[in-house]
Design goal:
CATH architecture of the largest domain: Sandwich
Strand content: 35-45%
Distance between the termini: 103 Å
Number of helices: 1
CATH topology of the largest domain: Immunoglobulin-like
Structural class: alpha+beta
Number of strands: 8
Order of helices and strands: HEEEEEEEE
Helix content: 10-25%
Shape: elongated
Number of domains: 2
Strand order of the largest sheet: 2-8-7-4-5
């Protein structure tokens, strides 16, 4: 039986390379987590009031007359300050409308051409409001559409 001599690797750098990669990855993940935590979060809330809250649809499923909707957007704190330049979107009844609020926090829509399918007697317009520095406001049942 022949004896074989085991040789040792004296280049420890090659064996330590995977450990350095693991350490670099851990540090990179920690840096990314720290950067993500520095991103400012929207912490202000907003409130909306929509007038009128009902639109009548004719028996044939179409809107008979143009309806003026006003959406007042304010902060949801004790002062209820108006929010300027917020984007207000109304979606439903086969249409979508979008406006920005003025200096008094009001967006006015001239809503026409809404329809209801033949087997639907009522539906809702959904309102979505977004503004920089505020959490988005969404109300799924903002304006009622109903068939006469």
């Amino acid at each position: 039986m022949k004896k074989t001599k085991l040789t040792t690797n004296t280049n420890a750098q090659v064996l330590g390379l995977p450990m350095y990669l693991i350490i670099i990855m851990i540090v990179a993940v920690a840096v990314i987590a720290a950067v993500v935590m520095m991103i400012p979060q929207a912490n202000k809330m907003m409130n909306a009031q929509i007038n009128p809250g009902v639109i009548e649809i004719q028996e044939d499923g179409t809107q008979s007359a143009t309806t003026i909707l006003t959406v007042n957007v304010t902060t949801k704190d004790d002062r209820a300050d108006p929010i300027t330049d917020a984007t207000v979107t109304l979606v439903g009844g086969g249409k979508a409308f979008s406006q920005t609020t003025d200096s008094s926090g009001t967006a006015t829509f001239s809503v026409s051409g809404l329809t209801l399918d033949s087997n639907v007697n009522e539906a809702y317009l959904k309102v979505t409001i977004s503004s920089a520095g505020f959490e988005d406001y969404t109300k799924d049942q903002a304006v009622l559409l109903y068939r006469l």
